[in-house]
Amino acid sequence: MTEKLLHNWEKKSNERQKVYKQFLDRAGKNEVLRLLPEFHNEAFSKVDCLQCANCCKNFSPRFKTPDIKRISKFLRMREGDFIETYLRVDEDGDFVVKSSPCPFLGIDNYCAIYDQRPSDCQRFPYTDEDVIIKRKVLTLKNSAFCPITYYVLEKLIAKK
Q1: Whether 106 and 155 share a structural domain
Q2: Measured distance CA(136)–CA(127) in Å, rounded
Q3: DSSP letter (8 states) at residue 93
Q4: What whole-number distance in Å separates Cα of residue 130 and Cα of residue 150?
Q5: Is the same domain home to 90 and 137?
Q6: Angle subtended at Cα 103 by Cα 102 and Cα 109, rounded to the nearest 5 degrees
Q7: Which domain range does residue 89 map to?
Q8: What does the pLDDT look like over 13-60, one tens digit per residue?
């Protein structure tokens, strides 16, 4: 079942965006939150993020002030130099990386600052928290490039 579910997931996710939106609009928050831990853990046991890294290759997390302080200290850079070297301000006023893929992503898909990574990276893809329901637009976007988000949504829909 799992191999079949994940087979050709990008195409299937693209075709099912309307289904996902309808599900997220109608889903009972308490029921979804009850099921998330199981499906989240199951998805992470089936998908190897190091084989994918779509999140790091195509999108940027927000770098909040504590992230900037922690990462610049880890890199032994002044905060201003870190910002100037790696970040830009996006249309929402958030600091994000200047380029894709993320400058901290290695060719082996390992992160050079993994232990210090931004909180958005630590929490991604938000499949174990209420963000999956609260921020529907983000969940839909994530389902198009993250096999874990796709997997969790498919399991939630199958369970309803």
Answers
A1: no
A2: 12
A3: S
A4: 16
A5: no
A6: 65
A7: 62-123
A8: 999 999 999 999 999 999 999 999 999 999 999 999 999 999 999 899
